[in-house]
Amino acid sequence: MSYLGLNTTTDDHAAKASPADVRRKNRQLIFRLLFPTNQYSRAELGRRTGLSRVAVSDVVGRMLEEGLLRETGQAPSGGKGKRGTLLSIDIDRLRIISIDLTQEHLLHGAVTNLLGQPLRHAEVTLNTGSFVSVDVIIELIEKMLGMSDGEVIGIGVASPGVVDNGVVRSSTMRGWNNLDLSTPIAEHFGLEVNVSNDATAAMLTERFFGQGGPNMLFVRIERGIGSAILLSDTPVIGELHAAGELGHISIDLDGPLCPCGKHGCLETMISGTALKKQLSAADVEQHQGILARAGRYLGQALAMPVGLLDMADVCVYGQPNIINATFIGAAQQYLDAATSSSFHKHTVIRRCECGPDITVQGEAIAVVFQHLAK
Prior knowledge:
The strands form 4 sheets. Strands 6-5-4-7-11 form a 5-stranded mixed β-sheet, sandwiched between helices. It contains 11 helices and 16 strands. It is globular. A hairpin with a 5-residue loop joins β5 and β6. The chain has 3 domains: about 20-90, Orthogonal Bundle (Arc Repressor Mutant, subunit A), CATH 1.10.10; about 95-200 and about 360-370, Nucleotidyltransferase, domain 5 (2-Layer Sandwich), CATH 3.30.420.40; about 210-350, Nucleotidyltransferase, domain 5 (2-Layer Sandwich), CATH 3.30.420. The longest helix has 23 residues, at about 285-310. The two termini are about 20 Å apart. It has helices spanning about 20-35, 40-50, 55-65, 135-145, 180-190, 200-210, 265-270, 270-280, 285-310, 325-340, 360-370; strands spanning about 40, 70-75, 85-90, 95-100, 105-110, 120-125, 150-160, 160-165, 165-170, 175-180, 190-195, 215-220, 225-230, 235, 315-320, 350. It is α/β, with parallel strands linked by helices. About 40% of the residues are buried.
């Protein structure tokens, strides 16, 4: 299994790698087995990974010193002999600063533990239509660092739009083009910085703390529409880092003009902003019809990627008054009609039940796995 560039290479299969490379791969493997809430003894980790007893002892010892792992008690008795000591992720020592740039009128930050669970929150209120500069983001991070009660190992920033190695290539929501977020933040604080697409970050929370499995198509419907794809526990990024731009698929070439330059993009038709406008201008009796139509549009946009990728799980995140039973039911009905066949497993569209911290938690998780790869 691989995840965010991790793989299951053991010390036996990496004889040509340097000792440092082998140790890094082995600690990624051990951390991945324990994350988020598993507890295993050293002996059990050796059985599950195929690593030698010496390799497990070496890697675990270093991870205990770093604050990545902790000992949590004795393993259940398996018969004669000394019981092993259980290991788990240490959530008490190390911290991450995670920033969510997806909300229209504020920037949201959190100090989290290694599970991405927020411990402290801070916000910066934005004026309507104001341009968000890197300096404003840095000010929020400085505020969060002052609130941390542990060593901060990295900073994560979740941004809407196309993100390429720390650079936001395009974000119609923020009005950014080729904005480098990673370099100035890393230079200012001297810490590792990860910048992710917001839908990809949110998908990680659904994967580890929601109902998502290793294969999932995640759709985020808020001010805009974004999506992310997980295949065999590996996010699909795309050749130009633009995989998952579901919101900019045109479903009506005669539809409204989108900031991206096309007409009838899904985002112009069923984003949270678009639907709020439609609902506010309609009678209460018309609301169900508006949401049903929006659900059918989503089903139409999903039909091709679901069929192409043979995806059985579609998770949709958004406000419950929009992503409700009417919306999901209409999307499911359209998708069933478009994709059902004898050789395709039935695809289920479901509502994401993760809470409002889904983005900061997922971005913190991305920072942790980036830290392990160093």
